[in-house]
Amino acid sequence: MFTDNYELTMLQAALHSGTAHRRGVFEAFARRLPDGRRYGVVGGTGRILEGLENFRFGTDELDFLANNKVVNDETLAWLANFKFSGDIYGYAEGELYFPNSPILTIESTFAEACILETYVLSVLNHDSAIASAASRMIGAAGSRPCIEMGSRRTHEESAVAASRAAVIAGFHSTSNLACGLRYGVLTQGTAAHSFTLLHDTEEDAFRAQLASLGTGTTLLVDTYDVETAVRLAVDLAGPALGGVRLDSGDLVAQAHEVRSLLDSLGNTSTRITVTSDLDEFAIAALAAAPVDSYGVGTSLVTGSGAPTASMVYKLVSREDDHGEFVSVAKAAKNKASVGGKKYALRRLNERGTATSEVVGIGSMPANDGNDRPLIQQFIADGVLTPGWTGAEGVRRAAARHTASMAEMPGAARRLQRGDPVIPTEYEQLATAT
Amino acid sequence: MFTDNYELTMLQAALHSGTAHRRGVFEAFARRLPDGRRYGVVGGTGRILEGLENFRFGTDELDFLANNKVVNDETLAWLANFKFSGDIYGYAEGELYFPNSPILTIESTFAEACILETYVLSVLNHDSAIASAASRMIGAAGSRPCIEMGSRRTHEESAVAASRAAVIAGFHSTSNLACGLRYGVLTQGTAAHSFTLLHDTEEDAFRAQLASLGTGTTLLVDTYDVETAVRLAVDLAGPALGGVRLDSGDLVAQAHEVRSLLDSLGNTSTRITVTSDLDEFAIAALAAAPVDSYGVGTSLVTGSGAPTASMVYKLVSREDDHGEFVSVAKAAKNKASVGGKKYALRRLNERGTATSEVVGIGSMPANDGNDRPLIQQFIADGVLTPGWTGAEGVRRAAARHTASMAEMPGAARRLQRGDPVIPTEYEQLATAT
């Protein structure tokens, strides 16, 4: 039922006119990247595939649709028997994308592909927005680990998906336990100010945490006075103290002060974690500060200014009455799209650096020898190809992301606003449909 | 498991130190409104109460926590038996809020209240962000209905919650079927460009839609040429044609042209719905155009520039060893908070117009006669008060929102950036804890 009303009324009208069973090719793509971004990161493909297994209409759903007269009996009967039987292919999760990259293609009857529109776009738009923001943070953080801590700033289920997307883009771990449970991702955490305030003194709180969680734990040192807290922490835990967390104030200055203090007390291996509304720019500003890891929350789960990837889902080709596929595209002002089934490869130069995104209309563009084909098959005739979902899917997507970033020109990592780091080029064959 | 790792490790440490069973008062509030906003709208309270019923730790969750050594056996045993037994009170859903309004208060043992932090904040931060944006759109739309159509631009479960929040803030209906199913909200829709493209001609598509859905349906008229499509629609449907939808181009100019054309063809009662990346400013710009309803998507589900409400959850009071409550607050730079259990009322002048938000610390502020108390009890000793959840909760919240908006000074509806429309004032009694 992650479906818009109009998908089912269109289904009804198409069943009525007999066009519902025409095969069609729907394509999910982004007309543009968020303002100033150099690249996007595909997120959500694995979740789409997982969700499709349960994309059915049960008794409660059918009763609702019937009682509210959303659709007629013929349509209800069709929905009751729905199970996706077509093909789904596209970019691997974790892969980079650019304007008009054919990120996900769904080929089936119009009826089957039409009703997936909202679900497919919800997942891709959300997860890709988060993965794209996360990747920039990872670039800014360099070799220092980033920990995802944004669950409280977004819807409770978005939080799990955001955490998953962050790990795909290179985050080291997450505070979100549901993500750990579902995807085998490492979970981590420190402590909150409330824990300190619960106790009569900061010393009581630190003693309690160390006694229960061991000296390797990370103590939050800014509830009252940072210097006092750091000295107390070292007094209580000794040189084996795992870490301290700073969550307020001028983080650059404070990181230097705390590092000096820790070192002067002999705690040279105690780590400093910083949090407090970090985004990719704040992380970059901390590059020269003695920080060991970043906890990132709000900016991550809100896509750092771009909370949705603005992908659309368009019919690009469909059968006619003779069973021949014809390219279709709307001509609407400022929203025109390119018809025809798409193929894509990433053009690489002899040094393995990406130079363009080549999209073929109707057939695969010619590979000049170094190019890397981008389209993967996820579902064939309704059957899922193994390896794209669950914990394995997340691991593979993270590896894919690392490899794809390594191909990019260095300018991809620039944080300042600019054009996509490589252009998208169409290659159309004469016979294209 | 909508929980952050640190909540459970803090729980473990507090169980170990014996402080876990101290009673504590946690408060959810926003230090500030999103930049330039005049007011916020409380969203999500009903969903929190619904979710609490299922906030348990089952076998899968406990196994995960054990296998990954997140917490020790004592903590696992406590979690296995967890069921919230405390009190929850605060602002009714749909109510307006201002900086430091005590929106939700959770009073229980530290252990019970601590582990709810992430879930409570996720729901409040997401749903309030959407409700707050939606309310501004409703103000801009005046008496014209707004239809929520943003599901595809956000996570599939956020979409349901966003749709619910939009209706609370005054939206007429939603495209989201899952929201209709769960909350009894009216669902609506038109048709997509893909439906036109599926057919060999626009005429075939319009005929199919009219034949199946009746002449009262809304036809999408901008797939090819708008004027041609409007003439065709009127030809096929006659004067009873329900509506046409415009989704691209210069909507103001096009609405005037289409209205003139429809009127000249005799279709004076055919409605015009506009969509296409509308936000409160675009809606306001269409106020003088002959538009009958607005379909709002991306801007709604992303909070129109403020995708999270930035609420925090702080321990403000807790028992000491003698069972006495003491106010607590952290002193951290730029993030200090105000300790003590809070009460609140809205100060109204003799004409019933709000003049300030009065927050009492430790006790209810004196009511000057016109003032309206704001705190409602949702859960007492673990038992839910009826009326706040489900479809009834949504209906009541929408009514609450309308009534609360009616009390506000006219400046609340201004779209340009400004300060909160009423100030928040603290009233502290000498004996406050």
Automatic annotation (TrEMBL), chains A, B:
One of its GO terms (molecular function) is nicotinate phosphoribosyltransferase activity. The keyword Ligase applies. One of its GO terms (biological process) is NAD+ biosynthetic process via the salvage pathway. It comes from the Bacteria. It catalyses: 5-phospho-alpha-D-ribose 1-diphosphate + nicotinate + ATP + H2O = nicotinate beta-D-ribonucleotide + ADP + phosphate + diphosphate. Pfam families: NAPRTase_N. Pathway: Cofactor biosynthesis; NAD(+) biosynthesis; nicotinate D-ribonucleotide from nicotinate: step 1/1. Transiently phosphorylated on a His residue during the reaction cycle. Phosphorylation strongly increases the affinity for substrates and increases the rate of nicotinate D-ribonucleotide production. Dephosphorylation regenerates the low-affinity form of the enzyme, leading to product release. InterPro entries: Aldolase_TIM, NAPRTase_N, Nic_PRibTrfase-Fam, Nic_PRibTrfase_pncB, Nicotinate_pribotase-like_C. Keywords: Glycosyltransferase, Ligase, Phosphoprotein, Pyridine nucleotide biosynthesis, Transferase. Its EC number is 6.3.4.21. The keyword Transferase applies. Residues 1-125 form the Nicotinate phosphoribosyltransferase N-terminal domain. SUPFAM superfamilies: Nicotinate/Quinolinate PRTase C-terminal domain-like, Nicotinate/Quinolinate PRTase N-terminal domain-like. One of its GO terms (cellular component) is cytosol. PANTHER family: NICOTINATE PHOSPHORIBOSYLTRANSFERASE, NICOTINATE PHOSPHORIBOSYLTRANSFERASE PNCB1. Catalyzes the first step in the biosynthesis of NAD from nicotinic acid, the ATP-dependent synthesis of beta-nicotinate D-ribonucleotide from nicotinate and 5-phospho-D-ribose 1-phosphate. Belongs to the NAPRTase family. This is Nicotinate phosphoribosyltransferase.
